[in-house]
Amino acid sequence: MDFTFISGNLGLDLAGTVGRRRGARVDLLATPADLARWTVAAGLLDDRPDASDDDLAGAWALREAIYRLASAVRTGKAMDAADRDTLNAAARPEPASVLLGERGVERGGDLRAALSSTARAAAELLGGPQAGLIRECEADPCTRLYIDASHRRTRRWCDMRGCGNRAKAAAFRARHHDGARA
Question: How far is the C-alpha of 85 from the C-alpha of 82, rounded, in Å?
Fold first, then answer.
């Protein structure tokens, strides 16, 4: 399955690698190879890094901490100190390098550097002015978090092409089905 980067923040996109959190969970980071693929798909690294089962467990811990922290901010609850410590520990190492090479931008580093870049993006969001724009997709059963950067701050779905389209089509069918009965 392909990764999607529609949340508006790399940390939220990492959290979005789990779908349907309140139902039959779909985990897009099931193996270390999936994690390595994600770092390239996210534009963090040009080449897939080495990834172990321990690295995957660490990425899962970071992902869940980001999700819980963002959910707390979104709902106005206090952030859990252990989740904040997990995020900060992942953000401390040097981030992935971004250099200008002869053929354009070159991104390099190891898995730890890629996760540091991701954790730093999440920290900037959660502690910055856009924190109040974090929303959860209203489509059932989607649980993706995203930044509502729409003009009126009324965005309801993580992605109009997916969840939004399905929700609007279902509403259309329901209206026409109810109209046919009358």
Answer: 5
Residue 52 CA to residue 106 CA, distance in Å, equals 24
- Tell me if 76 is assigned to some domain: yes
Hey, what are 51's tokens? 């990834």
Is the pLDDT score of 164 beyond 80? no
Give me the sign of the Cα torsion angle 22, 90, 76, 134.
negative
Half-sphere exposure of 39 (CA within 13 A, CB side): 29
How far is the C-alpha of 78 from the C-alpha of 154, rounded, in Å? 24
What does 135-147 look like in DSSP terms, one character per residue?
EE--SSS---EEE
178 pLDDT more than 70: no
CATH code: domain of residue 97: 1.10.3300.10
C-alpha span between 30 and 35 (Å, rounded): 8
DSSP 80-124: PHHHHHHHHHHHSSPPPEEEEETTEEEEE--HHHHHHHHHHHHHH
State CA 35 to chain mean position distance: 13
pTM of the full structure: 0.89
